[in-house]
Amino acid sequence: MSDFLMTPLISLKNVGLCYRPLRTIFSRTKKEIWALRGLNLQIYEGEKLGVIGRNGCGKSTLMRILAGIYGIDEGKVRFSRPNVHVELLSLGVGFEGNLTGAENAVLNGMLMGKSRAHMLERLDRIKTFSGLGEFFDYPVYTYSSGMNLRLGFSVAMETDPDVLLIDEVLGVGDEAFMAKSETAIREKFTSDRTVVMISHDAAVIKRMCQRAVWLENGCIVAEGDPGKVAEQYHHALAGGQ
Amino acid sequence: MRSHIPNKTMFISTLKRYCGIILYRTIAGIKSEARQNYLGYLWFLLEPLLSTAVLYIAFTQVTGKAGPQYVAFLILGMISWQWFESSCMLGSTAIKVKYGVLSQFNLPKYIFPMVSIMVNTWKFLCVFVVILIAAAIMGYPPNRHFVYLPLLLAFQLLLIVGVTLPLSVGATLMNDLLTVVSSIFRLLFFMSGIFFDASVVPENLKSWFYANPMAVFIESYRMVVIHDQPPYMPRLMEAAAISLGFLVLGVALHMYYDKKILKLTNV
User: Fold this and answer.
1) Could you read off the pLDDT of B194-223 as tens digits, one per residue?
2) CATH number at residue A221
3) How far does the CA of residue B210 sit from the closest CA of chain A (Å)?
4) Which structural domain, as residue segments, surrounds residue A180?
5) What is the ipTM of this complex?
6) Are A105 and A121 part of one and the same domain?
7) CB contact B8 to A (< 8 Å)
C-alpha cells in the first residue's frame, strides 16, 4: 500500500446504528432494529473502497452515516481533518416538477453543498453534459425518467466532494448516455478523490475498487483485496443457497 | 459523534449556505405554486379575498353588521390568522413530506419547515399590501402609527416560527399530534377575536383571552390600521415573550433530534 493511503480519512470504531420504528398502541412491531453493530472500518484518503453485501445488510445505512445524515447510537466516527465534504450521489432527488431543468440544477447543487454562484457558473456545462438541449429550460415534469436521471447525474458531476459515496449507480440513461456517464464516474475513480461504492454485484467492485469490505448483518465479515473478498462473498452466497 | 468542532468561519459559511437554501427554495416554491394554476400569481390575492368574502357574507347575514369598518375589521383578523395557521400546519408536515430529500442530503431538518413558512409569509405580504391599499380607499389611510406594523409582523413571524419548529419535530415523531393540533387551531380560530372585538370578552376571562398571542396581534393590527392608535405595548411584549418561549423549545428539539429523527419515523 502506498504512503498516501496510510492516513485514515474517516475511521469508524465499534459503530452501531439502530432504527426504532414508530409503534401504535395496538401493534407489537420490533422495538429496535440494529442495522449496524460493532462495525470497525477505516477509509483512507484517496482510496477507492468497495462495499459488498446482500440486501438489508446495512450498506445504505453505512453510507448515510458517512454522509452525516444519520447520527450513530454506539461507537465513534472520526474524521482526520475538519470540514471533510462527504456527498452521497443521488440522482434527481428533490427535483421540483414545476421548475425548469436549469432551476432544478442550481437548487440541487445547493443541497449538495455548493453555492448558488458555483452552480450558475457551471450551468452551461451541465446543460451540455446532460444533452437535454432545449428541454433544459422546460419544467422537469415534462421529462422522461431517463431525462430526469441525466439531469441528476450531470448536476452531481459538477459538485466535487472530498469523499464521493456511490450507491449502486454506475451508468444511467440510454446507451449513449450510459457510456458517457460511466466514463465520468471512472474519471472520479482515477482522480485522487476518495470514493466509497456499494453494490451487491461483486464483479463491479472487483473491476472498480482497490479494496473491498463485505458487510453481513451489520458488521464486516471480510476485508481486503476485492478479488478475494468477492470470492468469499460468492462462496457464502452459494453455500447459503 | 463527529469529532471535529467546526470553527467560527466555517459555522458562518454553513449558516449562510442554509439561509441561501431557504431563500432560493422559497423563491422556487412561490414560482412552483404559481405555475400550477392558470391564474398563476393572481391566486395569491384571490384566495384570501375569496375566503374573506365568504365569511363577510355569512357574518353580515348572521349579525346584521355591515359597512367598511366591519369589512376592514374582519379582513385584518382573517388574513393574519390565515398566515399563522397555514404556515404552522404546512411547516409541521414539511419534514415528513421531504423525507426522501432529507435522507439523501446532509441538511438540518428545520430547512423545509422554514421554507413552508417563508412561502406563506410571502403570500401573506402580497395580500397585506393590497388590504392596506383597500383600507385606504375605504377611509382608513396610512397613519403615523403604521411605524408599528413592521414590529407587529416581526413578532407574528416569531410566533409562527416558534410554534412550527417544535410541531415539525412532534408531528414527524407522532402523527397523532397533527389531529390534536388542528383541533386546537380550530378552537383558537374562534377565540382569537377574528369575528368579535376584545371588548365583548367578559372581564374575568380577559387574561385568558390575551394569553393567546394571536388575539393580541389581531387586536394590535386593528388598533393601528383602523383606530389610528399605537398597540398596547405590555400585552405585545407578553405575546412576544410567549413566542420566544416556543422558539427556544423548537430550537432545543431540533438540536436534539436533528440526526435522530429520520431513524425514528415511518414514512
Assistant:
1) 888 888 999 999 999 999 999 999 999 999
2) 3.40.50.300
3) 37
4) 92-194
5) 0.86
6) yes
7) no
